[in-house]
Amino acid sequence: MAKRMTVKEKERVARILALLDKEYGTDYRCYLEHDSAWQLLIATMLSAQCTDARVNIVTKDLFVKYPSIEAFAKADREELEQDIRSTGFYRNKAKNIIACCQKLLLEFHGEVPSDLESLTSLAGVGRKTANVIRGNIFNEPSIVVDTHVKRISRKLGLTKEKDPEKIEYDLMHVLPKDHWILWNIHIITLGRTICTARSPQCETCFLKDECPAAK
């Protein structure tokens, strides 16, 4: 939907956002437990192909064992692999976490950067992870395209794309900036409770009148 939006399209998006705000509120919240930017960065890297609930279980002990960026940078790779094994793809994740933390120390003085280019230069950090950090830590308007956002945004007719980056740009075009971060928060909640992938409850969904898929 890169074309100019019609008045009707704008009104429909506004109705969808109003319904989401009414149902879920407008408070920002992150489902990954963290106390700092670097903890959220690592937790988000671990969340690839893994549930937030599982990541939170793992990081509860992980951040005690490795209490700093320096500790992760010096971690034994095989030992770290076992520490994060239950999150899946643990070999690649361990390699990326160590390399990422080493670069944070060498090039960013041990601080997590805020700009997209610097974030995506880190090992294992793509646009999705970078936007999680930008939105939740630095309050930069960012759209995070995860599996829920991809699936439900397509069902709502806000994009026809399948590539996450193209979906991100489509959503940036149709959503007001003050709802970029909220979109991810709201749609994750909707995708986990009502609009599930396997059995969407269209008949009871509060968005059914605005959703082409429900009709």
TrEMBL record:
<keyword id="KW-0456">Lyase</keyword>
<comment type="function">
    <text>DNA repair enzyme that has both DNA N-glycosylase activity and AP-lyase activity. The DNA N-glycosylase activity releases various damaged pyrimidines from DNA by cleaving the N-glycosidic bond, leaving an AP (apurinic/apyrimidinic) site. The AP-lyase activity cleaves the phosphodiester bond 3' to the AP site by a beta-elimination, leaving a 3'-terminal unsaturated sugar and a product with a terminal 5'-phosphate.</text>
</comment>
<dbReference type="Pfam" id="PF00633">
    <property type="entry name" value="HHH"/>
</dbReference>
<keyword id="KW-0411">Iron-sulfur</keyword>
<keyword id="KW-0479">Metal-binding</keyword>
<feature type="binding site">
    <location>
        <position position="195"/>
    </location>
    <ligand>
        <name>[4Fe-4S] cluster</name>
    </ligand>
</feature>
<dbReference type="Pfam" id="PF00730">
    <property type="entry name" value="HhH-GPD"/>
</dbReference>
<protein>
    <recommendedName>
        <fullName>Endonuclease III</fullName>
        <ecNumber>4.2.99.18</ecNumber>
    </recommendedName>
</protein>
<dbReference type="InterPro" id="IPR005759">
    <property type="entry name" value="Nth"/>
</dbReference>
<feature type="binding site">
    <location>
        <position position="205"/>
    </location>
    <ligand>
        <name>[4Fe-4S] cluster</name>
    </ligand>
</feature>
<keyword id="KW-0540">Nuclease</keyword>
<keyword id="KW-0234">DNA repair</keyword>
<keyword id="KW-0004">4Fe-4S</keyword>
<keyword id="KW-0238">DNA-binding</keyword>
<keyword id="KW-0378">Hydrolase</keyword>
<keyword id="KW-0255">Endonuclease</keyword>
<keyword id="KW-0408">Iron</keyword>
<dbReference type="GO" id="GO:0004519">
    <property type="term" value="F:endonuclease activity"/>
</dbReference>
<dbReference type="InterPro" id="IPR023170">
    <property type="entry name" value="HhH_base_excis_C"/>
</dbReference>
<comment type="similarity">
    <text>Belongs to the Nth/MutY family.</text>
</comment>
<dbReference type="InterPro" id="IPR003265">
    <property type="entry name" value="HhH-GPD_domain"/>
</dbReference>
<feature type="binding site">
    <location>
        <position position="211"/>
    </location>
    <ligand>
        <name>[4Fe-4S] cluster</name>
    </ligand>
</feature>
<dbReference type="Pfam" id="PF10576">
    <property type="entry name" value="EndIII_4Fe-2S"/>
</dbReference>
<dbReference type="InterPro" id="IPR011257">
    <property type="entry name" value="DNA_glycosylase"/>
</dbReference>
<dbReference type="InterPro" id="IPR003651">
    <property type="entry name" value="Endonuclease3_FeS-loop_motif"/>
</dbReference>
<feature type="binding site">
    <location>
        <position position="202"/>
    </location>
    <ligand>
        <name>[4Fe-4S] cluster</name>
    </ligand>
</feature>
<keyword id="KW-0326">Glycosidase</keyword>
<keyword id="KW-0227">DNA damage</keyword>
<dbReference type="InterPro" id="IPR000445">
    <property type="entry name" value="HhH_motif"/>
</dbReference>
<feature type="domain" description="HhH-GPD">
    <location>
        <begin position="46"/>
        <end position="193"/>
    </location>
</feature>
